[in-house]
Amino acid sequence: MRRIALFAVRSRYALASLAAAGLVATTMLLPGAEAPKSAAPKAAAPQAAAPATAAPATAAAVRPAAPSKLQHPDDRVAPWRKNVTVKLVGPAGERHTSHAYYVCNPESPDGRRVVYFSSTAAHAHIGDVVMLDRTTGEETVLATGVNAEDAHRGACQQWTLGGKAVAFHDVQNGRWSVSVVDIETRKRRVVAEEHQLGFGQGDDEWLPIYGCHWNPGPYRDLELVHAVTGERRTVLKVSEVETRYADWVQKEFAGKQISIFFPVMSPDKKHVFFKIAAGNGGNIYMSKGASRRQGIVAYDMTAQKITWMREKWGHPAWHPDSQQIIEVGNFLFNSSDGTTIRIPELPTLNGTHPSVSPNGKIYVTDGQTTSFGGGLGEWGILVGDLRGKHHVLLHRFQNNRGAKSWRASHPHPAFSADGKRIYFNVSAGDWTQLHVAELGDEAVAGK
User: Fold this and answer.
1) b vs e for 292-328, b when ≥16 Cβ sit within 10 Å of the residue's Cβ?
2) Staple partner for 364: which of 51, 154, 329, 413, CB 3.0–4.6 Å?
3) Residue 41: what pLDDT?
4) Where is the domain boundary, 256, 283, 314?
5) Distance separating alpha carbons of residues 20 and 18, to the nearest angstrom
6) Contact status, residue 380 vs residue 369, Cβ threshold 8 Å
7) Which of 367, 397, 387, 391 is nearest to 38 (CA)?
8) First-to-last CA distance in the chain?
9) Distance between CA atoms of 416 and 317, rounded to whole angstroms?
């Protein structure tokens, strides 16, 4: 395995493909998809301060970061500038491998294993949930014949019960269900039918679930399901959202019935944010028009109250403090009072999916590299200081091929629990492949 030297962010470096012991080190990345409408405009140049952006309509006025924050002598991003290894996760082969999403760490809580979706189908809609032992390189298939909604999030596979089990959803004979599989016994059990899976925390025993966004039927509320017993709890009724934001709901969804969609639990497991959906009914879900989805709502499950709402959904992710939410455009929102900070002097990439390191000091995001001189279809992985200014374009690659799904696979970078590894999907060739960027033994992320 070779170490990949990281050049200055404006430089273009040659891409290489290396092989060793079933691992392929590579700097080639995959095909890009059209950037979401919520993505912030790109910076004029990577060194320049990011262009001014108006605060979201429903948020408090943007509070600029104090100028003194830019005088920090230390560079938290420094460990990611050199001695970083980028390699393929798992054995190479003619198949797609992808982790679920940027809000979900694919490593087990103890860091010993990685879970991902594997498919030999061109569109990557059907495949297996696979577990990899990081020490031995051995793969274990936990579930076969799993049908996914798209290649964008796979089966939403994720760790639960402290790493003793993996949860995922799939559809069989037109019926959706959420399953949990024990990694030792390989026993699979369905814990919820007619539901899909949001994203919980790997050390928790409860999983957030919701009714199918295109046709939720009676399951329009936010629910939690116990990963062992299958007990279900209603956390928040959608009627509370309808009442509190009646004018916005009417304007945004034109009188259609809405449901709670895509809940994401906070690291402390006391808060959750989610999107609102209005489905078009029927059974056609492989379409961007299957439902209209918009807005972000934060809910405090301990106080049992909605704490914040924003009318536009970008690509939000929890900060490890379980209060702040990072968003497209280098924004940090406080989910308790709506206070908004624009992280200064950082570039913005189109199509970004930002997530914060476990120590809360740096963040990682993906996106199209046009602001760094990249050509059509080139994407990159960028690591930045949450105080602003310092950043490095860690890896760049073509991302316009891979799985031929109706909803493209994106890199969706996510940190490991110890902050030393970043997992991301690459679609540079015929197959979308899961990669990991890893710090050298002497480096510690964010220090």
Assistant:
1) bbbbbbbbbbeeeeebbbbbbbbbbbbbbeebbbbbb
2) 413
3) 36
4) 314
5) 7
6) yes
7) 367
8) 25
9) 15
Instruction: Answer yes or no: do 308 and 324 share one domain.
Output: no
Tell me, yes or no, whether 154 lies in a domain.
no
Task: Provide the domain limits for residue 340.
Answer: 1-102+319-447
**237 and 332, same domain (yes or no):** no
Q: Does residue 51 lie within any of the structural domains?
A: yes
Assess whether pLDDT exceeds 70 at residue 40: no
Encoding tokens for residue 293? 């989805």
Q: How many domains does the chain have?
A: 2
Say if residues 378 and 368 touch (Cβ distance below 8 Å). Answer: yes
Using one digit for the tens of pLDDT, what is the confidence trace for 413-446? 999 999 999 999 999 999 999 999 999 975 543 4
* CA dist., res. 156 & res. 342, Å (int): 30
Residue 366 vs residues 63, 245, 322, 438: alpha-carbon distances, Å: 25, 32, 22, 16
Phi, psi of 413 (to 5 degrees): -65, 145
Question: Last residue of some domain: 263, 293, 314?
Answer: 314
> Does residue 280 share a domain with residue 177?
yes
pLDDT tens digits for 310-323? 999 999 999 999 99
- Token readout for 45 is 């140049």
